[in-house]
Design brief:
The chain has 16 helices and 14 strands. It is α/β, with parallel strands linked by helices. It folds into two domains: about 180 residues, Aspartate Aminotransferase, domain 1; about 250 residues, Type I PLP-dependent aspartate aminotransferase-like (Major domain) (Aspartate Aminotransferase, domain 2). Helix 5 links the parallel strand 3 and strand 4. Helix 2 runs antiparallel to helix 11, helix 4 packs across helix 10 and helix 14 packs across helix 16. The protein is globular, with a radius of gyration of 22 Å. The C terminus is likely disordered. Bound molecules: ligand F0G. The site of ligand F0G has 15 residues, from helix 4 and helix 5.
């Protein structure tokens, strides 16, 4: 018998209430938050899709593992369990725990980059870019052209442009200390990178004597897409696919808050002994001793168990399907979105959906707020508020105006997703009434976290 329904491969042991609010309450809460979803109290949100980072549910095995946490300052048993679990997947020599992904980035780039260096990536995540730029180096995004077109279909839209990689390496000898590929490509719509692309990028780097790193946050989701979409991988296990991906890498940075299935944690892993030593020295300075790296022993246990649970086939089938399920409803109803659906999130295309709101009135911000007001849903703008403001004070509209709805792992069920779909379709039906916004106050950098906004008249025609 083959049943077509893909169910959540878990049952629920502990529940956490979420709270309904009235539309009037949401209006008041949003106004008090300066029309910025980051400034809401979480208790005023019904379904929180702000991020998939550290917001997932842990398993009973992870909680049991946490009771085994060894809190010794040095040489804790928990570290060795964590190290073995990570090494089984990555086969990398030095495994250095950090309190989250951006700490691994800071330590790696702080140990490796000099002013004027160039770091190519398919697309840098914003903290990765910020950590490269903090070293006065250049964060260069070189995704394939298809990756920049929301509506265009391609199985591996996260791929790196290999011709561009070859060119930057040939033209800048000695100025590229490493190349990174982000799997899946979060800032490019949660799109996967093919094994062929990872392999070829690694070969090109090695021909030029440059180390090749993975930003591995969502490595398990990427492995599942390879299994589904790439010839020759259909009968391999996600673990075997992940092992092959890492076999091409000289190192990786990882936020264990994603496919580590933990609420906090991360690591830096690499083969080069001398670089590892420098990184460990830096780690001791700011994170902690190399066998805990800013984490409690019980956090290391949670990751040791979680990182293998992320590779479970039933879990990955449900995970990728639950995101695609929402995507399918959007496509059926012609709601514009980044296609195909990503691994951890749906990205609604506000530029296409709200043509009456010009980029200078922040259509993606407007759509994110409309979803909250209509149904208590919190997504995040990835558009001109996030990317339109530059260090020299100038403004240019972002290339895309997206609202990311990121799915925390193992947290919401299909009925939550059905509700979500209903709210989005309702908002889409009444989209002409959505107003544009203007900025009332902003910080000079990373303004999206704290900006205060104001809605314009509902026609969107005034500035
Ligand atoms: N790299 C990628 C691709 C990420 O998505 C993130 C975090 C990081 C690095 C940094 O890891 O948060 O543990 O320091 N992404 C989260 C998000 C915050 O919402 O997409 P971190």
């Amino acid at each position: 018998m083959h049943f077509k329904t893909i169910i959540e491969p878990f049952r629920i042991k502990a529940v956490e209430p979420i709270r309904h609010t009235t539309e009037a309450e949401r209006q008041a809460a949003l106004a008090a938050a300066g029309y910025n979803l980051f400034l809401l109290k979480a208790e005023d949100v019904l379904i929180d899709l702000l991020t998939d980072s550290g917001t997932g549910a842990m398993s009973s095995r992870q909680w049991a593992g946490m009771m085994m946490g060894d809190e010794s300052y040095a040489g804790a048993t928990s570290f060795y369990r964590f190290e073995a679990a990570v090494r089984n997947i990555t086969a990398l020599k030095h495994i250095i725990p950090t309190h989250q992904g951006r700490a691994a980035e800071r330590i790696l780039f702080g140990s490796l980059l000099r002013p004027g260096d160039i770091v190519p990536n398919n697309t840098h995540f914003d903290t990765t870019r910020a950590n490269v730029e903090y070293r006065q180096a250049v964060a260069l995004d070189i995704p394939i052209a298809e990756g920049r077109e929301p509506a265009l279909l391609h199985p591996f839209k996260g791929n790196m442009d290999l011709a561009a990689l070859e060119k930057v390496l040939a033209e800048n000898p000695g100025r590229v200390p490493l190349v990174m590929i982000t799997i899946t490509n979060n800032s490019g719509g949660g799109q996967p990178v093919s094994m062929a692309n990872i392999r070829a990028a690694s070969q090109i780097c090695h021909q030029h004597g440059v180390p090749f790193f993975l930003d591995a946050c969502r490595f398990a989701e990427n492995a599942w897409f390879i299994r589904q979409r790439e010839d020759g991988y259909g009968d391999k296990t996600p673990l075997a696919i992940a092992q092959e991906m890492f076999s091409y890498a000289d190192g990786c940075t990882m936020s264990a808050k994603k496919d580590g299935m933990a609420n906090i944690g991360g690591f830096l892993a690499l083969n080069n002994d001398e670089l590892a030593q420098r990184c460990k020295n830096m780690l001791i300075l700011t994170e902690g001793f190399p066998t805990y790296g800013g984490l409690a022993g019980y956090d290391l246990e949670a990751i040791a168990v979680g990182i293998h649970e992320a590779l479970d086939e039933d879990y990955l089938r449900y995970r990728i399907r639950s995101v695609a399920y929402l995507g399918d409803i959007m496509i059926e109803n012609e709601v514009p979105m980044m296609r195909p659906p990503g691994g951890h999130a749906i990205y609604l295309d506000a530029k296409a959906m709200l043509p009456h709101i010009p980029p200078a009135q922040y259509p993606a911000w407007a759509l994110a707020n409309a979803l909250y007001l209509a149904g208590g849903i919190r997504g995040v703008e990835i558009g001109s508020i996030m990317f339109g403001h530059h260090p020299d004070g100038s403004e240019t509209p972002a290339g895309m105006e997206l609202v990311r709805l990121a799915f925390p792992r193992r947290t919401y069920t299909q009925s939550h997703v059905d509700y979500l779909a209903e709210v989005i379709l309702h908002v889409n039906q009444h989209k002409e009434a959505i107003p544009g916004y203007r900025i009332v106050w902003q910080a000079p950098v990373l303004r999206h976290f704290t900006v205060r906004m104001e809605p314009l008249a509902a026609t969107g025609s005034q500035t």
